[in-house]
UniProtKB/TrEMBL annotation:
Stored HAMAP family: DNA_HJ_migration_RuvA
Protein name as it appears in the record: Holliday junction branch migration complex subunit RuvA
InterPro entries assigned to the protein according to its UniProt record, in alphabetical order: DNA_helicase_Holl-junc_RuvA_I, NA-bd_OB-fold, RuvA, RuvA_2-like, RuvA_C, RuvA_C_sf
Region named Domain I: 1-64
Stretch list, region Disordered: 155-174
Domain notes: Has three domains with a flexible linker between the domains II and III and assumes an 'L' shape. Domain III is highly mobile and contacts RuvB.
Family: Belongs to the RuvA family.
Subcellular location: Cytoplasm
GO CC annotations, alphabetized: cytoplasm; Holliday junction helicase complex; Holliday junction resolvase complex
Function: The RuvA-RuvB-RuvC complex processes Holliday junction (HJ) DNA during genetic recombination and DNA repair, while the RuvA-RuvB complex plays an important role in the rescue of blocked DNA replication forks via replication fork reversal (RFR). RuvA specifically binds to HJ cruciform DNA, conferring on it an open structure. The RuvB hexamer acts as an ATP-dependent pump, pulling dsDNA into and through the RuvAB complex. HJ branch migration allows RuvC to scan DNA until it finds its consensus sequence, where it cleaves and resolves the cruciform DNA.
Residue ranges annotated for the Holliday junction DNA helicase RuvA C-terminal domain, each copy included: 175-220
Single GO term (MF): ATP binding
DNA helicase Holliday junction RuvA type domain: residues covered: 1-62
Origin organism lineage: Bacteria, Pseudomonadati, Pseudomonadota, Alphaproteobacteria, Rhodobacterales
Length: 223
């Protein structure tokens, strides 16, 4: 299976890109959100991929993070959700938004994706709610694409460049850290994921300590 591609972006279509990997062109279908985040033609690019193989079809789908790729795989497991609907949901919400919507049971947010009706949206939330904690915990793994240069694409034997300085924690990484902290405090995966997702939705720029405190307030007994 082809799990990742690194090369030059050769061409950008309405729903796909053509990535040249050392002379071999791969057509990779992506969500609108992912397409918008990719660099321009001629630039170095790296995407995680999932290969869909059917009797009459073979297509690659591209993602900017492992969490996005995992949500695509899980969404495709829901009856009534195909690749087009999965990309529509990811394009509308992004992987963090999908985690938040499913963890909090917000099927209306899922329904906002093009071509997804209320019954399908409710089924997505019901079928995948228990999966949200695991995917949220992936937030620190492949949360953002590393910077790659033309040399990385053209000269495989060149000495590796020094790693760039660590970027600020992404939203997915922050949620993953908060989720881990709540799990260590004894909260169950589903209730912890729901609280973290709700807290992140109310304060998307919160750092890990603030997110943990906000989630703990939500989990505190009422009355």
């Amino acid at each position: 299976m082809i799990g990742k591609l690194s090369g030059r972006l050769d061409y950008r279509g309405d729903d796909h890109v053509l990535i040249d990997v050392r002379g071999v062109g791969y057509i990779v279908h992506c969500s609108d959100r992912t397409l918008a985040a990719l660099p321009g033609p001629g630039e170095a690019v790296s995407v995680y991929t999932d290969l869909l193989v059917r009797e009459d079809l073979m297509q690659l789908y591209g993602f900017l993070s492992l969490a996005e790729k995992e949500w695509h795989r899980l969404l495709m497991s829901v009856q009534g959700i195909g690749a087009k609907a999965s990309l529509a949901i990811l394009g509308a919400l992004g992987p963090d938004g999908v985690s938040r919507a499913i963890a909090t049971g917000d099927w209306a947010a899922v329904k906002a994706a093009k071509g997804v009706g209320p019954k399908i949206a409710q089924r997505v939330v019901l079928d995948l709610k228990d999966k949200a904690p695991q995917v949220m915990a992936m937030g620190h793994v492949g949360a953002a694409q590393p910077q790659i240069s033309a040399e990385d694409v053209i000269e495989p034997d060149a000495p590796a460049a020094p790693p760039p300085s660590a970027p600020a924690a992404s939203s997915g990484a922050t949620q993953a850290e908060a989720l881990s902290a709540l799990s260590n405090l004894g909260y169950g995966p589903s209730e912890a994921a729901s609280a973290v997702a709700q807290a992140a939705g109310e304060a998307p720029d919160a750092q890990t300590p603030e997110l943990i405190r906000a989630a703990l307030r939500l989990l505190a007994p009422k009355g």
